From TrEMBL:
Protein name (record): ATP-binding protein
Pfam families cross-referenced by the UniProt entry: ATPase_2 (PF01637), DUF234 (PF03008)
Sorted UniProt keywords: ATP-binding, Nucleotide-binding
Species name: Methanomicrobium antiquum
Keyword DNA repair: no
InterPro entries reported for this sequence: ATPase_dom, DUF234, P-loop_NTPase, WH_DNA-bd_sf
Record-linked SUPFAM superfamilies: P-loop containing nucleoside triphosphate hydrolases, Winged helix' DNA-binding domain
């Protein structure tokens, strides 16, 4: 499945491991921050890194300061091979770290850099706001002069970015590196499931690239059977995961849920969101800003708009949250009464429009990462709209004065249909105001299947379908040492 044993489900993360190893192999003490949303694979990554290096791992809990100090001493004692170390009652974190560093077994016989990992560091902060100041002192007075690599990790992105990485944090300026772990890029989904390309796009549309979610899907079951069992089923992990995720991240989770529900229902402007939620405009603006900073939603303007453009649109970026608010949240009552099968049947026929919307999002990601139109160097990439006219993907290549205009269609197209879409795209291009006197226009189309691709390409159109996506995904994975074939 990958370079590791298939059973370990460790897919990709080569860049992350290279980052960690680079810091480990430096001649200096290192203080590294790892953060990212729940279930994205941070702990698996850290464990994989620790396999090859001396050190120990501690996961903080929400039980409070004394309990966490006691549990940290316990795992440290195991690393030191000293049962007495864990029996000592340490009055605080500083005394614990002093004892740890002074222990005769701390560096063992190898003398190599020792890795100290504190996972879910945000739990410590939630129970004690003084933790950042405490660890500032620990780093400044103890660790920065030792041959150590301190890694702190957290799943509350807002807490980590504010209380650990933020300018006002006591820890600001202490870190030697940081990495936000993101969901897996689309091609890696085929390393989990033996599906057709169409089904893989559908999988991405409901759970994205979150490894823990992908592992829940039964590779021997059909797509919609997995959706029923793992998502639209009382007691299943993904049935309540979105609400847990939001309540974990936000204190006022109810208001955030109201805003995300409004976005899912098609209210995409500030005024319409206020109307749908009944919340004050200034309050909604603040919440939208927070959601944007956490990359849960996208705050977008037409790609050609000036910096001060005010009629902005908002949309949910995360595929799992998109699906949860579109399908699960509105049908919670039926799901609670174990009518998941009926819910699935009722929404199944309407899912085409949902997959169409998500396909646009996926195509944007693929274009941004150079899967399609890789000969362009886009200075700006995004959607475009003006009055009743909309274009799914518009890219500006300012070096070559090239304008890319592309539509995304979740359907199989005959050559005639494809030509009709491309013709309409040409007509809309006259409304796009950007270097009209000297630009070169490139017209693109991405769909499930496009008949007559070769002929259309011969006429200068850039057209792609799922067959091209499959071939490009396999090539991408092979270049990174994977099989490139579905499991």
């Amino acid at each position: 499945m990958s370079q590791l044993n298939a059973g370990e489900n460790f897919v990709d993360r080569n860049d992350e491991l290279e980052f960690l190893n680079r810091h480990y192999n430096s001649e200096n003490p290192e203080f590294v921050i790892i953060y990212g949303r729940r279930r994205v694979g941070k702990t698996t990554l850290i464990f994989r890194f620790l396999q090859d290096n001396p050190g120990f791992y501690f996961m903080a809990s929400e039980e409070g300061r004394e309990s966490n100090i006691r549990d940290f001493a316990s795992v440290a004692g195991d690393y030191l091979n000293d049962p007495d170390f864990k029996r000592i009652n340490y009055p605080g974190w500083e005394s614990l770290f002093k004892s740890l560093l002074n222990h005769r077994n701390f560096y063992n016989s190898s003398g190599r850099k020792v890795v100290i990992i504190i996972d879910e560091f945000s739990y410590l902060i939630s129970k004690d706001s003084g933790v950042p100041s405490t660890f500032q002192k620990i780093w400044d007075l103890l660790l920065k002069n030792e041959n150590v690599m301190l890694i702190v990790s957290g799943s509350s992105v807002s807490t980590m970015e504010t209380e650990v990485l933020g300018y006002k944090s006591p820890l600001y300026g202490r870190r030697t590196g940081q990495w936000q772990v993101e969901p897996l890029f689309y091609p890696y989904i085929r390393e989990f499931l033996p599906y057709s390309e169409e089904e893989l796009v559908m999988v991405w549309s409901v759970v994205g690239g979150v490894p823990a979610y992908l592992q829940l899907f039964n590779s021997k079951a059909e797509f919609f059977d997995n959706v029923l069992q793992q998502m639209i089923n009382k007691g299943s992990y993904l049935y309540l995961e979105a609400e847990i995720l939001l309540r974990y991240e936000f204190r006022e989770a109810g208001n955030y849920i109201s805003i995300l529900r409004a976005l899912s229902s098609g209210y995409t402007t500030l005024s319409s969101i206020c109307q749908a939620t009944g919340l004050d405009k200034s309050m909604v603006s603040k919440y939208l800003s927070v959601l944007t900073n956490l990359h849960i939603i996208l705050d977008e303007a037409p790609v050609t708009a000036h910096a001060g453009f005010r009629k902005r649109h908002y949309r949910i970026l995360d595929p799992y949250l998109n699906f949860w608010f579109a399908v699960i949240y509105p049908h919670r009552m039926e799901i609670e009464t174990k009518k998941g099968s009926e819910v699935l049947m009722s929404v199944k026929n309407q899912m085409s429009s949902y997959f169409g919307k998500m396909f646009e999002n996926l195509c944007m990601d693929l274009v941004r990462c150079g899967f399609f139109f890789d000969d362009f160097s886009f200075s700006r990439l995004g959607r475009w709209w003006f009055k009743e006219n909309e274009i799914d993907i518009a890219g500006l290549d300012e070096k070559s004065d090239t304008l890319l205009l592309c539509e995304c269609k979740w359907m199989s197209l005959s050559e005639r249909q494809a030509r009709g879409i491309l013709k309409a795209l040409k007509e809309k291009s006259s409304h796009v105001k950007w270097r009209n006197d000297k630009r070169t226009e490139v017209y693109g189309l991405i769909a499930k299947e496009i008949s007559g691709k070769k002929k259309l390409r011969g006429e200068g159109y850039s057209v792609f379908d799922l067959e091209d996506l499959r071939e490009e995904s396999e090539r991408f994975l092979k270049e990174r040492g994977f099989s490139g074939k579905r499991v």
